[in-house]
Write a structure and sequence with these properties.
This protein is of the alpha/beta class and 260 residues long. Helices cover 53% and strands 11% of the residues. It has 10 helices and 6 strands; from the N terminus they run βββαβαββαααααααα. Strands 1-5-6-4-3-2 form a 6-stranded mixed sheet. The radius of gyration is 18 Å and the shape is globular. It binds zinc ion (ZN). The site of zinc ion has 6 residues, from α3 and α4.
């Protein structure tokens, strides 16, 4: 699911303001009333803990502010008026020095969309910047609420099919992307797969990612992650291909269990 991205202008006017829910790390301004114990809010609190522990990040200082519109029309009208050049998507994250804001609306995929954009918020609350591909790859990884952790079944199936017909990864190309209108489904999918590989291949790949994120806490331009990855794992591209091609093993197993 490629629901969102980052843009760099401050929001103005017309925002949901009827109901506000607030805790230390999250503010939700909504057109509709949510209880403090709503499962979506508990889910985001747990997700925040999971992101910080998985990525070895410090507790954020700045809260993420979610603007939750009642419906798609109101949301789309607001986005169109404020950010007319953005491609239409179900949700957006807008990080500025003033606010870490998520815009979305109440719909069928609200949990996935909130998890995706909230992940951007948590990352930008603790890091100076995040390369676009990594920002989106991490958001795609953490938007998945089901088990196994981070498994996007659709992407895994697509990748298996594409690898079978000769597709090759290109992390350097992903690293060259600078704007969200260069990111479409294949880019989200490959970014997700690299993050899945880094986090789940082995301790070395995991450490490459967490060390890189540690650098991003103090500098916005640490250079490409691919250089560090190939220093630690010289055959990283081949390992990645094996990893990405074998993801469907788990998908098929889960599918069979569910059918019983
Ligand atoms: Zn995104």
């Amino acid at each position: 699911m490629n629901s969102g991205c980052r843009v760099a202008q401050p929001p103005i006017g017309g925002l949901p303001a009827k109901f506000t829910l607030e805790n230390e790390h999250l503010v939700i301004q909504s057109d509709i009333k949510l209880s403090r114990n709503h499962e979506l809010i508990r889910d985001l609190d747990q997700l925040r803990e999971q992101i910080l522990s998985t990525l070895d990040l410090p507790v954020q200082k700045q809260p993420v502010v979610v603007y939750l519109f009642a419906d798609e029309t109101r949301y789309a009208n607001y986005l169109q008026a404020r950010y007319p050049r953005l491609p239409p998507r179900r949700a957006y994250f807008v990080g500025t020095s003033r606010e870490l804001a998520v815009y979305t609306y109440w719909g069928d995929r609200i949990q996935e969309d909130l998890r995706h954009e909230f992940t951007h918020g948590v990352l930008h609350a603790t890091l100076k910047d995040v390369p676009l591909w990594l920002d989106e790859g991490l958001a795609e990884y953490f938007e998945v609420a089901s088990q196994p952790q981070g498994m996007n079944r659709e992407y895994a199936m697509n990748l298996a099919a594409e690898i079978a017909t000769g597709w090759k990864p290109n992390l350097d190309r992903l690293e060259s992307l600078e704007s969200v209108d260069q990111m479409y489904k294949p880019e989200y999918q490959e970014s997700w797969a690299w993050v899945h590989f880094l986090l789940q291949h082995n301790e070395d790949s995991h450490a490459v990612l967490t060390n890189y994120l540690r650098e991003l806490r103090t500098t916005s331009q640490p250079g490409p992650l691919s250089t560090r990855l190939r220093e630690v794992i010289p055959v990283a591209d081949r390992r990645f291909l094996n990893h990405a091609g074998s993801l469907t093993d788990g998908v098929v197993r889960v599918g069979r269990i569910e059918e019983k």
